[in-house]
Amino acid sequence: MAFKLFIVDWLIEVLRSISIYFLNHKAYLEVDLYSEQNEEIDMRKIPTMMKKNIIYDKEVVQKRWDICSSCKYLTEGNRCSVCKCYMQTKTKMAFARCPLNPPKWNIYKPGVLNVKSAN
Ligand code: SF4
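That is the input. Now the predicted structure with iron/sulfur cluster docked in place:
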C-alpha cells in the first residue's frame, strides 16, 4: 500500500511539474501574441496568464530594460535575437529571464532585485 501511495504521489508531482511548464509556456505565447498586436500594455485587455505575471516593481522592469537596451542582441524592433521575444513586454513578466547562460537578468522574486549589471 505504501508503495502505491508513493507512486501516486510521484505521478501527481510529475503532472504538477508538467502543468507548470505548459502554463508558463502558454504565458510566453500569450506575451508574444499580445506584443505583436499591441505597442503598449493595456491592463484591461491583456490575457489572464500575462496579468498574473506582470511585475509592478518599476525599478526591476527599468533595470531589465536598461540591460537589454544596451545589449548587442537587441534588434531594432526591440526583439531579442536570441529568444526572439519582444523585450519591452518580456521585461515586465515575472517568469521571464534573459536566455543567455549565465543570464544577464533572471526570473523575478519579490523583494529581490535579481538583476545583474550588463556586461
Ligand atoms: S534578453 Fe538577454 S540576450 Fe536578449 S536582449 Fe536582453 S540582455 Fe540581451
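The two ends are 55 Å apart (CA to CA).
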